[in-house]
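The records we work with from here on pair a chain with its fold. Taken together, the tokens spell out the fold as the letters spell out the chain. The record below shows the convention in full.
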Amino acid sequence: EGGKWAALLNAEKPSREQWETVLKGYKASVDFPGAVAYSELLEAYPDAKVILTVREPESWAKSVMETIFCPYSRGESWVLAPWFWKVQMMCKAMRKKFFNDKDGGRSSGALTTKAGLKNAFEAWNQRVKDTVPPERLLLFKAGDGWEPLCKFLGVPVPNEPFPHVNDAGEFKGDMMRRWRKYLAL
């Protein structure tokens, strides 16, 4: 689906029908790549809501530098795994939207420095807050648990603990296992 997502993210104003090529059968889009298209998705889906997960910018930047923007997952990695180029095209389109520039944060240094990432993250959060109508936006901290999330979505609170996933150490281990597999092929 990387090629379809790249085309949608690079499109001027995708229609709902175009979004359905990647979203058909789903009720929600979580994290990237859908997160960077929040404004286009709000336009295509007028009843949609946006949940902006907020966290401390320094820890976010550190996590990103150690995981999704580490050398093994940057745009150059397609050379080692040529069949991965469609995913890399999607990632390039996501970075352009997230960093709000033409080269995905490369020339500004935002892609490669912790300070640049922190500033980009703060600017991103502000853009979302400035553009999403307040009644359609939840500023959510994972530590707040189920209650605010369920209230915003109009669903009952589950009778189970709020999950903690997306651990940086686990992510790095998974990336290394994948690259060992790719390089062995």
Strands lie at 50-53, 137-140.
